[in-house]
Amino acid sequence: TDGFVTAAEDATSASNNFDSLMASVIQIYHKCVAFDNEVNRLFPNNTDNSAKKEEMKDYFVKHVYNNRE
């Protein structure tokens, strides 16, 4: 029975853990989509620009890396 849900308490815990995991996955997805949109805005047609790279880095740090929402 190792790894299987065998009691009501385990089922509740597994359900809560799954819900928490799914919320995290959804949050990561939204952050990735927003970051991709920002990259596309800063680098249309795959242009290379050092100033835009710094702006992208700042966006990533502020809205992805340090954002705990």
Secondary-structure map with pairings?
Elements lengths: L7 H35 L7 H16 L4
Question: How would you describe this structure to a colleague?
Answer:
With 69 residues, the protein is an all-alpha fold. The protein has a domain at 23-69. Helices cover 74% and strands 0% of the residues. The protein has two helices and no strands. The chain has helices at 8-42, 50-65. Helix 1 packs antiparallel against helix 2. The protein is elongated and about 60 Å long.
Largest sheet: none
DSSP helical segment count: 2
How many strands? 0
Following the backbone from N to C, one meets helices and strands in this order, namely HH
Structural class, by secondary structure, is mainly alpha
Supply Rg: 19 Å
What global shape is seen? Answer: elongated
> Beta fraction of the residues?
under 5%
Termini separation comes to: 36 Å
Low-confidence stretches: none
Mean pLDDT: 77
Q: Classify the helix fraction into a percent range.
A: over 70%
Organism: Babesia bovis
Keywords: Merozoite
Protein name: Merozoite surface antigen-1
Compact summary:
The chain is an all-alpha fold and 69 residues long. It has helices spanning 8-42, 50-65. It starts with 7 loop residues before the first helix and ends with a helix.
Which descriptors apply to this entry?
mainly alpha, 74% helix, single chain, Merozoite surface antigen-1, 69 residues, merozoite, 0% strand
